[in-house]
Specification:
Blueprint lengths: L1 H31 L5 H21 L9 H17 L3 H7 L2 H20 L3 H6 L1 H27 L5 H10 L5 H10 L6 H28 L6 H34 L5 H21 L4 H11 L12 H7 L6 H40 L9 H20 L8 H10 L4 H13 L5 H26 L6
Helix pairs in contact: 1-2, 2-3, 2-15, 3-4, 3-15, 5-13, 5-15, 7-8, 7-10, 7-16, 8-10, 8-18, 9-10, 10-11, 10-17, 10-18, 11-12, 11-13, 12-13, 14-15, 16-17, 16-19, 18-19
Length: 464
Amino acid sequence: MVKGFIKSLGVSSLLFLSSVAPVFAEVTKTESESGGGHGATAVVFLFLAILLIASKIGGIVEKAGQPAVIGEIAAGIFLSFLAFSGLGIMDDIRHSETMAFIAEFGAVILLFQIGLETNIKKMTKVGVSALLVAIIGVVLPFVLGSFVFAPLLFPESSFPARLFIGASLVATSVGITAYVFREMKVIKEKFAQVVLGAAVIDDVLGLLVLAVITALASGEAVSPEFVAILSAKAFGFLAAAVILGNVFAKTLSKGFSMIHTGTGMKITLALTFALVYAYGATLVGLAPIVGAFAAGLVLDAVHFKGFAFPEVVHDLLSFRGFDKKEKAKIEALVEKHKDTHIEELISTLGLLFVPIFFVFTGLQIEFASLLNPGLYVSAAILTVVAFLTKAFAGVAASGSVKEKILVGVSMVPRGEVGLIFAAVGKSIGAINDELFSVIIIVVIATTFVAPPLLKNLLKDYKVK
C-alpha cells in the first residue's frame, strides 16, 4: 500500500511538472521578448524554481531506501526528456550560464562538506591499510577503463575521452557508504574506518587525476615531464593549502569574531575560505572542487572558538541537577554540537545547492542518446568493470576474508564525485553526449547495487 502510494505520488508529481511546463514555456517566451532587465532576471528565477522543485520530487527515491542523488539525477533526465519532446524552456535551462554557475557552486559546496567531515588524524590510524586499498581502487579501474575497455568499446573516441572514462571509475562515494554504515551501526568498526579512509584518499588521488586529465584535454602537450610538474603543483597546492590554512585560519577567525560572533559571520567566514581556496586551485591548474576540498580539510572546530555557540548548546547548558552519569552525557552532547556546528551550517547550504548540481547534471544528458541500444551494452560492461575493480581492492585490507569482502563492496558506489568527473569532462568538450550518458548510467548502476548488497552482507556481521 505504501509502495503504491509512493509510486502514485511520484507519477502524479511528474505529471504535474509536465502539465505546468507549457505555462513555464509561455512565461519564458514572454519574458525573453521583453528585452532583458527585470524580465531576464525573472526567467532566471523561473529556471531556478524548476530545478529546485525537480530536485525535491526526485528525492522520493529515499522512500525506497536509495540515496537521494539517484532521484535527483533521474529528475534531471526527466527534464531532458521534456526538452527532447519539444519543451524549449528545458533546453534553455540546460544552456543557461547562470544555472551552470549555480550547479558548479553546488559541486564546490559538496566537496567542501566532504572535506569538513574528513578527519586526517583518524585516517592515519588505519593509514597503511586504507592507502593500499585506495591505490588499488584508483590504479586498477583507471588503467582498465582508460587503456583496455575504452579503446574496445569506443574505438573512435579521443585519448582525453578515454582518460575521462577511466577517471570516472576511480572515485568512491564517501556519503553513500557512510550512510549505510551509520544505519547498520558499524561506523566505528575497523573495516569501516579503512573504507572511509580509503574513500577519502582515492577521492584526493582521483581529483589529482582529474586535474592532470583536464589540463591534457585543454590542449597541453603530453609528456612525462608535464605530468610530473602538474602533479607536483597539485600536491604542492594541497600541502601549502593545509599548512597555510592551519597557520592563518585561527588568526583570521579571531579577527572576524571581534567584529561579530554570530552565526552569520561564522558561515560567511567558512564559505569565503572555501571560495578563496577554490579560486586558488584554478591558479595552479586544478579544478575548483580540489580547492574546496582542501579548505574543508583545513577548517576545524578549533578555528571558530571565538564565535557564539549554537542555540542547542545554550539549551543543554541550562540543565541542572542531574547525576554524574547524566551530566557526562550532556557534556558529551555539548562538545558534539560545538564541534559539528560549522558542518551543520554548510550542510544546510548544501541542502539547497547540491541537489541543483545533480539535477543539472542529469539534464545535461541528451535524451536522444539514451535511445541507442548499444549504449546500454557498453554501460553494462563498464559497470561490471567498475564493480569488480573496486571490489578487488578489498584484498589489501587487513582482517578476515569477510571483512575484506565488506571493504571491497563498500568501495563500489561512485556517487557524487563520479558525476563531477563526468560533468567536468562534458563541460570542456572532452567527452560527447554518448560517453557522458554511459558514465552517468555506470554511476547510477554502481550506486544502486552497492547499498542493498552491503546491507545484506552486514546482516550476519557481529559488531565487536
